[in-house]
Model the fold of this input.
Amino acid sequence: MLKRGRGIEIKTPGQLDAMRAAGLVVARALAAVAARVKPGVSTGELDELAEQTIRDAGAVPSFKGYHGFPASICASVNEQIVHGIPAREQVLADGDLLSVDCGAILDGWHGDSAVTLPVGSVTEADLKLSEATRQSMLAGIAAAVAGAKLSDVSHAIERASLAAAAADGVDYGIVRDYGGHGIGTSMHMEPFLANYGKPGRGPRLRAGMALAIEPMLTMGDPEAVELDDGWTVVTEDKSRAAHWEHSVAITEDGPWVLTAPED
Done:
C-alpha cells in the first residue's frame, strides 16, 4: 500500500521494483532512438520508433495525450530546451544537438528519462555543454540519499553546473523555470525539484521516495520562452541547450537509478 510523507508518495521495495521495470522500458526506447539518430532522420521517425519500442514491451507512452501532447517523446533541437514536438517535417541536420525526453507506464508505474544526443559532427562546445549537463544530473543523483533535504539535491546540481562552467570557460545558464519532480503512480508529482538553491531546505528525503532529476543548461542566457504551440520551450537568446534526466529512487542503500540501462 502506498504511503505519503508530507504529501510525497512513499513506495514499498516491491513497488520500486515495478518502477524499475518501467524505467527499463524507457531506457530501451532511448537506446533505440540513440541508435537511429543521424543526419537526414526526422524527429517524427524517432517518435514512431520510441512508441513502438514502448508498446512492444507491453507498456504505454506516458507523454502521448498528456494534457494534449501529441507524441510519445519530446524532441528538442538546438535552442529548444524541452517539450519539442517531433514531426516528420523536422529533419535532423549534421551538427544539430538533440535532446530526447521519454516516458512510459508499465503496470501503473511511470519511468521518465532524457538524453542529449549529437547529430553527426557537432562542435566541441556542444559536447561540453551536454557533458556539463550530464555531470550536473549525476551530482544530483549522488546527493539523493535518505536523510538529506530536497534542496541538497538542487544545490549539488547547481554546484556541478558552476564547476563545469568554470572548467570549460563558458558561462552556462541554469534554466530556472523548469526542473525535476516526484514520480511514481503519476509522471509529475510532488515535490518540485529546482536545479539550483541553498542546501538544507525542503522535505527530508526518505527511503521509498522517487525523483526525476533533470538539469537543463544553456550555452548562454538561461531565460526560457514557450512558443505559440503551447509546448516547445526555447532559449530567449537562441543559444543551444542540453537536457539530461533519470528517475531515481531513494533507498537505505543509496540512490537507485531506475531508468539506467541494464548494463
